[in-house]
Automatic annotation (TrEMBL):
InterPro entries listed in its UniProt record: Exonuc_VII_S (IPR003761), Exonuc_VII_ssu_sf (IPR037004)
UniProt source species: Propionivibrio dicarboxylicus
Subunit structure: Heterooligomer composed of large and small subunits.
Localisation: Cytoplasm
Gene giving rise to this polypeptide: xseB
Catalytic activity: Exonucleolytic cleavage in either 5'- to 3'- or 3'- to 5'-direction to yield nucleoside 5'-phosphates
Protein name: Exodeoxyribonuclease 7 small subunit
Family: Belongs to the XseB family.
PANTHER family xref list: EXODEOXYRIBONUCLEASE 7 SMALL SUBUNIT
EC number: 3.1.11.6
Hydrolase found in the keyword field: yes
Keyword Cell inner membrane part of the UniProt annotation: no
Membrane-crossing segments per the record: none
GO cellular component terms, A-Z: cytosol; exodeoxyribonuclease VII complex
Superkingdom of origin: Bacteria
Length: 93
């Protein structure tokens, strides 16, 4: 039996078996990028494409949620005042 050479959802690393909620932002984003590349470059069977789309949607939502949480943490650290990095000391936007 020939070994698959492509990275279809069935042959992606073990990350695909981990619940999305348990993935770090970096791992989820990497898996999402891999899924998008696979879906763009390969002719996937319909059921495989649907499963990949579903997983990708879950990964996207998870990444967006983690980014929103990070933004809230930064805002809390800055006491609700975000400063431009290039602004002179003390100036806010």
């Amino acid at each position: 039996m020939a070994k698959p050479t492509s990275s279809t959802p069935e042959t992606t690393p073990a990350d695909a078996d981990i619940p999305v909620a348990d993935l770090s932002f970096e791992v989820a984003l990497s898996e999402l990028e891999r899924l998008v590349r696979t879906m763009e470059e390969e002719q996937l069977p319909l059921e495989t494409a649907i499963a990949a789309y579903r997983r990708g949607s879950e990964l996207l939502g998870h990444c967006q949620q983690l980014l929103k949480e990070a933004e809230h943490k930064v805002q809390a650290l800055e006491n609700g005042i975000l400063r431009d990095l290039d602004a002179p000391h003390g100036e806010t936007r």
